[in-house]
Amino acid sequence: MIRTAALKNQVSRILVLENLAAEARFIETELKRVNFGYESRRVWTMADFQAALVDFAPDVILAAGLPPEFTAMDALHALRDRHLITPFILVTGTAMERIALDCMREGADDYVLKSNLARLPDAIRNAIAKRLAETETQLAEQVLRRSEQNYRVIIEDTLEKREAELLRALEALQESHKALQAAQHQLIQVAKMESIGRLAAGVAHEVKNPLTVIVMGVEYLRKHLPEGAHEAVQVLDDMDAAVKRATRVIHSMLDFSAPSLIHREQAQLNPIVDSALGLLDRDLAKRSITVEKRLAGNLPRMPLDTSRMEQVFLNVFQNAMEVMEHGGTLTVTTGVKRLGEVAGGEKDPGSSLGSQSVIAVEIEDTGPGIPEEFLTKIFDPFFTTKPTGQGTGLGLTVIKKIVDMHGGLIRVRNREGRGATVSLLFPMERLA
Q: pLDDT tens, 411-427?
């Protein structure tokens, strides 16, 4: 449990996992520079770490440089095995960013680059604030349980009218509690997405320049090959294809981490749908996929970034094509509908569109559908079911971000029988 002093951002106990005293001093110097009051202890073995959890009771754990026999992941697992919620922050170099991402997935609160220690005090405060929210939720749950017990006693001893009033109050309290949990979860997800976005951008920029050099080298070698060097030409073609695949991954990572800027103008969705399908004509024919277009003729114009929206449709169409390996039918429907008439509309508890009218684009395929256990994960960054090398896991994350920037919603569901439906919904009230 986090102590009261720590909850007020007056951290007094910081456990530093670092086997080099000089590196630990860099961290302490940065905290002292901003008058961050604290008491610290440095450990670098599992035994000392386990002991410090008991007799030092840290408010925050900073995992920096550790020997191979005791890693940051080992420390994180040991912390979770004890069911402790102490904030856990990695202090890492650029070469260890992949390890930082793995630890974030396992429950670490944040990571800070050693080249940017100025961010460390804010990272500590944010991690403690998150734990404060979790602690308050636990207290609210305890209060709720006590309230439920009290309500049962009262209900048993009161008249029918009083019983109905108490039940309504209990339901309202439970709904408020659910709303609080949802808001807290959203805040935590936003913070983690920001950290992952920063990591993705850093990795993308580091890899982009070497790829450019490789492309230039391939072109230079291609121009200076003697005639008849067929094997060398094939090797260069393979290198060129591999670099292009890597470049697509880089672009996806940059799209994921890019600022939320769009350039909208009044436009209609139908021409964008036609344009995206036109770009895929040859691939659709090669895969024996038939396209059925049911585009409403009276579709209103709306503020759109046409280039980004075309990117959305291309991504959804390509995903549909890939699941129809032996051919099939791709159906695209547009129109103005009530929210309840659209797949995944009014039944969605996270919908912010209410019951208003929407401009809807529904894309159906005749593939095998999406496994139910994946439906809640398909928009998570880096989640993919494709084999290694065939997907980045960022496509749906990026298009959801684009749709969100347009004030819309994207929903995915399986249809009865066979196939999946992707619904893009844009509220009529936001057309101006």
A: 888 877 678 898 889 88
